[in-house]
Structures are given as C-alpha cells and as structure tokens.
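If you are new to this repository, start here. Below is one unmodified record pulled from the training split, so you can see the exact layout before writing a loader.
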Amino acid sequence: NCEHVIDAAARMAEALLRADPAVYVIATSREPLKSEGEWIHPVPPLAIPAGDAEDQVDLLRYSAVRLFLDRARAAEPHFATDGRVAAMVAAICRRLDGIPLAIELAAARAASLGIEELAARLGDRFQLLTGGRRTALPRHQTLRATLDWSYELLSEPERVVLRRLSVFAATFVLEAAAAVAADPEIVRSEVVDVLSNLVAKSLVSTESNSRTERYRLLDTTRAYALEKLGQSGELDAVARRHAEFYRDLFERAETEWETRPTTEWLADYGWRLDNLRSALGWAFSPNGDSMIGVALTAAAVPLWMHLSLMEECRGRVERALATLGAGANRDVRREMKLHGALAASLMYTRGTVPEIGPAWTKALEIAESLDEREYQLRALWGLWSHQISTGQYRLALGLAHRFCTLAAQSTDPADQLIGDRMIGATQHCRGDQPSARHHIERMLTRYTAPDHRSHVIRFHTDQRVTARAFLARILWLQGFPDQAMRTAERNVEAARAADHALSLCYALAQGACPVALYVGDLPAVELYVGMLFDHAARYGLGLWRAWGRGFEGVLAVRRGDDIKGLRLLRAGFDELGGANSHLRYISFLGTLARTLGRLGQVDAGFAAIEEALDRSNRTEELWRIAEFLRIKGELLLLRGGAASAPAAEDHFRQALDWARRQGALSWELRAATSLARLLRDQGRTADASALLQPVYDRFTEGFDTADLKTAKALLDTLQ
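And here is the target side for that same chain:
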C-alpha cells in the first residue's frame, strides 16, 4: 500500500512512464494517485450473501464465506459445516462487510471460540479480532491497527467529518451529511469537499440509483468512527443534529404523501428507516430530547403503515404517548395522530384488546375539537372496524353511515365509496347479502385509487382488496362458487402486486382461505395458509397469525385429522385472548363443534355451537346462523335418542328458512343435503329428492366443488 507516501508514489509513477512508455506500474492504495496516465481499478470487498439467503450450497458460492471456511479449517481441520453453521458464517461475513482481513481474523477466532460465541461477541470486534500472522505488517496484525493506520493518514477536517458521519445508521445523502457534520468550524461547503475525499480514500462508500447519490460507512468503519466520536465528546451534539434532520425530513414526508404518487414517495423515504430508528433511539435515551422523539414518531407513522411494520409502530407510539403522559408540553394534533396510530397498530398486533376503542375515541374527540375532517374520517373508520371485530354490528352500521355523511363533504370522491364498502361489509355480516353485494359492487365499479392521499395510510389496507375479499364470500353464499374462487384468487394476486403485507393478509384471511375451504379446494387452502403465516410472522402481525392458526386447524379437520385440528383450533383461540376476539373466535366455532362431536365429545360440541348461536343472535352477526343451526342438527343426530331425529329435522328446516331469507343458496344446499339425508334414512326417499333436487338445480356453476359433489352423490342414491 502506498497511501502513506502518495505524493512520492505519484511522482515516481509519472517519471517512470515518461522514461519508458513500455513500463507498467501497479500500485495499491486506498485513494487514487491522481498522476498522468492513471487507470483506476476499484477492488470491492468480497462477495457476501443477502440476508434472506439460506440454502447452504448457495451460501458457499460467495467468496467471503469461502474465505472464512478456508481460514477456519486451516486453524482447525475438523471445523464442521452444516446448513446452520453456513448461515451463521454468512451473517458474520455480512457484519464484517466482506473485508478479507477482518474475515481472516474472525475465522481464526472461530476455531477457538466456536461460531456461536464469535457471532455473539462481534459487537466488540476491535477487542476480538486480533492475532494476525506474525509475519504480517503491524497494521495487519489486528483490525483496530488497520483502521488506526487509515485514520492517522487523514487530515484533521477529514477525521472530524468521518467521526460525525458515523452517527448515520445506514445510507445517507449529501444533504443529510452536510446538516449533521457541519458546524461553525466546518461549513457545509467544506463538508462536501471532505466527503468527496473520504470517498476517494475508500472510507465512505457510494451507492448510486436513478434519483440521487447515496453514501454509507461500512459497518466496521462506522464502529471505529463511532468510538472516536464518543471519545471526542461530540456524540450528543451530533446525534441531536441527526435527530433534528430526520424529524424535519419526516414531517416533510408526512405532508408530501398527500400530494405525491405512493411509489415515488416510498422510493424517497422507505430506505431511510434505519436512520429513523437510530434517531428515535437517541431521542428517547437519557441524554436525548423526548420532544424531538414525539414529533418524529408522529411524523413517521405513514411510513410504518406503508411498510406494514405495525409491531414497531405500536412500540414507538406507546413510548411517545408515555412521554406526553409524563407531563411534557403537549401538541394536540400530534397527540391525535399518536392515538390513531396506537389503535391501528394494536388492531393488527394484539387483536381486539380493550385499549383500541378508547384510543380511536380519543383521536376522534381531538379531531372534532380541531375540526380536522381527515382524522375524523380515519377515527370513524377505525371505530367501525373495531366494532366489527368485537361483534357490535348495529353500532358498526351507525358508524358506517356517519362516515358516509362526513365523506360527502370530502374533496376525495373515493371516500364516499369507502363508506359504501363499510356498509356492504356490515350488511354481509348481518346476513343481508343482496344489500351487501349492491354496496360492494358499486364501490368496486366506481372506485379509482387516488394518485395521492394513499388509502393504505389512511385506512390501513388497499380498499379494493378488502372489498373483493368480502365480494368473494358473498358470491359463494349466493351460489356462485366458481366466481367466488376466481375473485379470491385474483384478489390475492392484486394484493401481492401492491406489495403491502397488511392488504395481502386481509385478502388471504378474509377472502381466499375461507372461500377455498367453502369450495373444498384443500391444496389452495394449504397454499394460502402458508402465505398468511409467512407474512404474519415476517411483519409481526399477531391478528393474522391467529387467523392462520385457525385455518390450519380447519384444514387438518378437512383432511381427517380431528385430533390435530382440535389442537390447532384451540391454539388459535388462545393466541389472541380466545373469546375476546369475536370476529376471529366465532369464525371457527362451527368447525370446533363438529370436530368435538365426531370425537365423541358431543356435549362439548353442543356447548360450542350454542355459544355460536348465542353470539350470532346477540350481536346480529347472522350470516352464518343457517350453518350453525345445521351443525346443531347434526350434533343432535350424533347424540341419539328418541327425540333426536325430530329435533334435528326442526333445526335443518330452520336453517333452510334462514338461508332462503338471506339469499344464501350455498347454506341452503348444505341444509337441504343434511335434511335430505335424514329423510332418506327414515325411508322418505321421495320427500328427500323433492327437497334437494330443486335446490341443486338452481346452481349454474361449481359442480366440481365439495358441497355440490356431495349433494349430487346423495341425489344419485335417492334415484
């Protein structure tokens, strides 16, 4: 390396080239010589696998991983490599940025400490990564010595700026660097020049994209520079400027989401998440400024919503509200935003916990006091969603109408259509399928997603995705199983294309999973449940994880494993507080009752179905009542006794009556099939056929679905 004698090396190279044009000079250095005739060949770090790479064979293709394993085996010939070890080696190489010297030193330590201990201690890498080869230059003996060598060669302004840039947790732009690194001694224009020098000296990396140049410090360089920043006594002052910059940035972002296309907005702000987290960490630290933290938290809510990071949002918002509750100066507009964000994040991470209603109510009260129509709409939507989840359908319908009244005053015509969806979803749950379909189809026909004012931020999910999830269920109920399945499938694809985890989970849990179960497409159910689990786990969405557990239980039951199914159903009930989550809980009570009955626990099955019927009547969630009555009839037959058949027949006929009144042809077919089977067993074959055949004949599609195949097989025996 010649960076420590760079001027002399440049003069020597030029002299040699002038003396003989056939001469070639190869020089290695952290920065260009800047001499005449120089051609630069950047040498990047070794290749490292991405964070989501898991396959052992793929991991071993990366040069950083291969170097680590080669040096580890040189120190310990019996160093074993399986999939788990390879994944840990890959993670270590990522943390060391693919720097060959750091990897060699780490590999030598792995031979003595073990791979897990090495990974756990990398936070103290400068104490850990020592003991280079005896014959190596002193600056190659330890990782710290290597960084000391480079640092000592810098000018004082370069050292100062490098230290200050270490406050950035990830990539940053020139504007951010100037705001954080400048002070009365080093003006912004000088920061720009120094940053260019640090890039030339390979201490700052660049990442180009189509919009702007970004910069970053490799993790090892950053750890070293951050240590120097702490020793300089400037850490808190620099961290404050960093937090203030991102507070101002995200307050601007919060305003811009109303006027910029969503994809463009996300492209500008999504990648700044790590620096946002770092700024919040300092703001709420003992040496920080909690008011900066409160302002930054409120401004960052749209980004967390867009990225479906609801668990992170919840934790950050709770921290900010606790600060307000401690008596700090209040900004009621920020408080309104924080209460709304708390309620929204709790919905998806904790289910229907009691804190949700008061949080939405508080947000609504503040919005009304400020005459803030936008947040009134958001809070009304949130309260409506909460009432749906807790089974308060009459209250939910009233809130949906209040939303529509207020939306009529909105400048966004799509708001009124969202009100249509809210009414349609409520009417579906109450059992009025014609009205539900009318409102939802009207919304889907007229709705155009706004270029600005993203509804993902305002109402948490893609509104067309949520509407189509309900439409798929309505279509199945009305006797169009093929259309229902196509709608559910296309909805999943649309949600995946939107790249929004909350919307995809909604499409799966509310549409695709139940509809696939209704039509009996068990491979599709397995696929959709797997997708639901994957996204719920990746984004910490406890609500959808619990739904996934319930669907997994139903799938096991459908495949004949009642014991496993019962265990999974109960696990799903427990995951988010059991009966406290009405919407999720009642969804699986029917399957629970049937499964208990088949396992000989008829009394427990009766208790479950009675609870389902009681909840349906008490809350006016009537769309499943026909099916619950049918299941109770089947349980009566399982119980046996002289009165069981008449009682079961009565329940089957009640189920038929409810299904006909609601226009739910698919429930009617199930009830007619159960009753026809009972009539056949009593020798009343003609009555059974006369009952079931007309219901079956009203179907125009779906003849390969489970219920229609069951009905057809029964009709064949009756003839």
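Two things worth knowing about this chain: The longest strand covers residues 205-208. Confidence is low (pLDDT under 50) at residues 578-583.
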